[in-house]
């Protein structure tokens, strides 16, 4: 396969935006915990990360700057921000319908285990010179997580920033759907990895 001109370029606008999203993660966490009565600060940081995610993907295709770095680290930046957000939402009990503490914990820790498995699997594949890119199921899961987060995000305490309780309840069920979709993405990832390993 002939690589595109941008495949091996590192210093591009999309890649800089990806790195910027990594930098935003600690700012989000600090804002969430340091300003509990002004959680719109942390929501603004999350929104900025989501916007840059959409922009860097668009620019990568538009400017022919799709790179191996971007294919690998763009979803990693998304996952790091979302996992950080999930930790924060678990802290205020906003990961599961009916505010079930055990389900809050289950969603968080099973997702962490899944992400750890994917990181270790990615490292193993990289050692063999193989990059398994994110799939559309994973991208759908990420989109569902973003939607759920925006619906459940608290303004202060556990009340939603938008002031509509029913939307927050919808967001909690969407979070559950995103979790299921995330494990479907893992299944696709493993299947793709096994297929590639068999070919090599």
| Count of discrete alpha- or pi-helical segments spanning 4 or more residues | 6
Counting helices, strands and paired strands, the structural category is mainly alpha
Largest sheet: 2 strands, antiparallel
Assembly of the depicted chains: single chain
Gross CATH architecture: Up-down Bundle
Distance from first to last alpha carbon: 15 Å
User: Could you tell me the radius of gyration in angstroms?
Assistant: 18 Å
Mean pLDDT: 85
Describe it:
- With 200 residues, the chain is mainly α.
- The protein contains six helices and two strands.
- It has a two-stranded antiparallel ribbon with strand order 1-2.
- The two termini are 15 Å apart.
Describe the structure in brief.
The chain is mostly helical and about 200 residues long.
Give me the secondary-structure topology.
Layout: H1 13-34, H2 40-62, H3 68-91, H4 101-127, H5 136-152, E1 154-156, E2 159-160, H6 165-199
Antiparallel strand pairs: 1-2
Helix pairs in contact: 1-2, 1-3, 2-3, 3-4, 3-5, 4-6, 5-6
């Amino acid at each position: 396969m002939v690589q595109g001109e941008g495949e091996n370029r590192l210093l591009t606008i999309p890649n800089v935006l990806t790195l910027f999203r990594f930098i935003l993660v600690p700012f989000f966490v600090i804002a969430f915990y340091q300003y509990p009565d002004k959680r719109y600060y942390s929501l603004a940081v999350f929104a900025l990360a989501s916007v840059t995610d959409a922009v860097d993907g668009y620019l990568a295709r538009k400017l022919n700057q799709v790179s191996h770095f971007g294919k690998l680290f763009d979803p990693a930046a998304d996952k790091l921000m979302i996992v950080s957000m999930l930790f924060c939402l678990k802290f205020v009990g906003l990961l599961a319908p009916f505010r079930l503490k055990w389900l809050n914990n289950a969603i968080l820790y099973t997702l962490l285990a899944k992400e750890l498995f994917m990181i270790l699997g990615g490292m193993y594949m990289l050692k063999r010179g193989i990059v398994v890119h994110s799939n559309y199921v994973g991208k759908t899961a990420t989109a569902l997580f973003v939607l759920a987060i925006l619906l459940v995000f608290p303004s202060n305490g556990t009340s939603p920033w938008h002031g509509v309780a029913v939307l927050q309840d919808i967001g909690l069920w969407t979070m559950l759907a995103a979790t299921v979709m995330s494990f479907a993405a893992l299944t696709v990832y493993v299947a793709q990895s096994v297929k590639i390993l068999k070919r090599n």
